[in-house]
# Entry
Amino acid sequence: MPTLQLTEVAELKDQSFSSTDLPDFTASAYKDAYSRINAIVIEGEQEAHDNYMAIGTLIPGQAEELKKLARMELKHMRGFTACGKNLGVAPDMVFAKEFFSSLHGNFQKALAAGKLTTCFLIQAILIEAFAISAYNVYIRVADPFAKKITEGVVQDEYLHLNYGQEWLKSNLDSCKDELFKANKENLPLIKSMLDQVASDASELHMDKEELMEEFMIAYQDSLTEIGLTNREMARMASAAVV
# Structure
């Protein structure tokens, strides 16, 4: 399934981007939307920390490495908390917890059942690809303080995405059936999550269609690295069409 490489996408978008595209960071409407978007990234990093710690209980031999990833997520959470404080915005954490509730619930069910493949798909593929795509779009329209924080976070997230990819790649022969099933159950949630915050993202000058496009590029690149065929990737991606 041919897609533009991430560098090519960035180059195309940079050509049309200018400072006039930046929102008014002091506007009340911006701050209202930011209270929910900022809460989402804070909660997302907390979820990531908890999920990596939980995955470590399923593979004790890799628990220390997973703890390192988890600690990085807490650092990200502190950085994004500072972004909200910099703008004088209190994050709406009640909204954010509800926002992640479906993925959270599915992860917890998989964890309780010892379904490591599902846990890795949810956290290390879907959530990390979701985060990377959103952060890459946000960086171009962020205030200077948040831009610097987010640029640092994105580099770490690629490491986390790679960790999940490598495990799934190494175990692909034995985990493929579960991978397809877990993907079918969880990929549609990403689209519904994007739909839920489309208006808030727009207020931050982040387009929903662009966010979904970036996500699908990161997601399909990840499936390629795992070792799926074009036909298998098409089958996986079709689950997003609901």
Observations:
- Residues 16 and 132 are 21 Å apart (CA to CA).
- The longest helix spans residues 28-58.
